[in-house]
Amino acid sequence: xxxxxxxxxxxxxxxxxxxxxxxxxxxxxxxxxxxxxxxxxxxxxxxxxxxxxxxxxxxxxxxxxxxxxxxxxxxxxxxxxxxxxxxxxxxxxxxxxxxxxxxxxxxxxxxxxxxxxxxxxxxxxxxxxxxxxxxxxxxxxxxxxxxxxxxxxxxxxxxxxxxxxxxxxxxxxxxxxxxxxxxxxxxxxxxxxxxxxxxxxxxxxxxxxxxxxxxxxxxxxxxxxxxxxxxxxxxxxxxxxxxxxxxxxxxxxxxxxxxxxxxxxxxxxxxxxxxxxxxxxxxxxxxxxxxxxxxxx
Length: 297
Ligand SMILES: [Zn+2]
Ligand SMILES: [Zn+2]
What we know:
Blueprint: E1 6-9, H1 18-25, E2 30-33, H2 48-60, E3 65-69, H3 81-101, E4 105-108, H4 118-135, E5 143-147, H5 160-168, E6 176-181, H6 182-188, H7 195-207, E7 214-219, E8 221-222, E9 233-234, H8 243-250, E10 259-262, H9 271-281
The structure holds zinc ion (2 copies).
One zinc ion binds next to loops.
């Protein structure tokens, strides 16, 4: 097995490429970013100088994997045509930004049906992705990862079956994958705390979306209990999942090469990230798989 791709979501204050310096400062070798302000529809034009700096820093700082997270405003499941169109264009822009930076994956919340029901929403999301793909034939190096969700309200993507139903309707399925967030999956009702539960969980993953469809893992403990449908991230080992759940993922060869990224609360000094990464590294059986920057912490 190769060295783990471990890291966290990092701020892009000062420029998108600044996230790489933050990732490197805590010894990580993977990172998640927003490629623009995630709470706004429109971003500034792509900064070519920052793209060049990003390319240099990725190799200079030994960051081996980067993923972007799309705006929280995007709702490809919306039954409202204006919001759906706006969302479709915003996600196309997200893919274009990732493409410019050479980022292979863009994590997207599948959306919320807001009353139209899951069946209609599934068609709606797939139709949006199909149109985006048809309009961006040169973006094939950047794929969308639909994130499993905790299932609050009318959110889509509450089960692997629901994600699979969307992917099945995409004409170019190789351009869509899944982001498996441990907090969301647990809050949605999937248990993986004991070795037996983890084995059953992986069987479900394999029988639905297929494990190979998972492009990245979000490593968050859960403040809410199993099946609580609460999307509240907690520090590793301090939530309802506990460290054992993460130990299974970290030592499972099936996740070799799939990045594991924290989205846990933190201050600007990133101390909480350091503690969470230390906790994760302490659970790794083979010490040669710990990223060099995180060894001997
Ligand atoms: Zn997310
Ligand atoms: Zn997540």
